[in-house]
Amino acid sequence: MEADVVGYTGSTARPQALAVRLPDGRTALTQSLKAPLAAPVAVHFAASGPPRSALTRAGETYTTVAPRLVVEVDGGCRSSM
């Protein structure tokens, strides 16, 4: 399924996981990103403007981005927000 990327954990230069909005409206964190996937999204995040922090319902901190990037996800999201 496709999901909008609405944020990330880790640094802008090396995102650790993505915060994605699923089709049912929930937001979830993906599994840890491997370097080959982190590099191209880092370029997008660097061009997204100043970062802002947000908290998940579980208290996890992530950085928000404008939802301009769409990714394909499977059952690999680890937590609901």
Summarize the structure.
It contains one helix and six strands.
What does this molecule look like?
- The protein is mainly beta and 81 residues long.
- It is 15% helix and 46% strand.
- The protein is built from one helix and six strands, in the order E-E-E-H-E-E-E.
- It has one helix at residues 35-46, and strands at residues 2-10, 15-21, 27-29, 52-55, 61-72, 79-80.
- Strands 4-5-1-2-3-6 form a six-stranded antiparallel β-sheet.
- A hairpin with a 4-residue loop joins strand 1 and strand 2 (15-21).
- It is globular, with a radius of gyration of 11 Å.
- It starts with a strand and ends with a strand.
- 22% of the residues are buried.
- The mean pLDDT is 83.
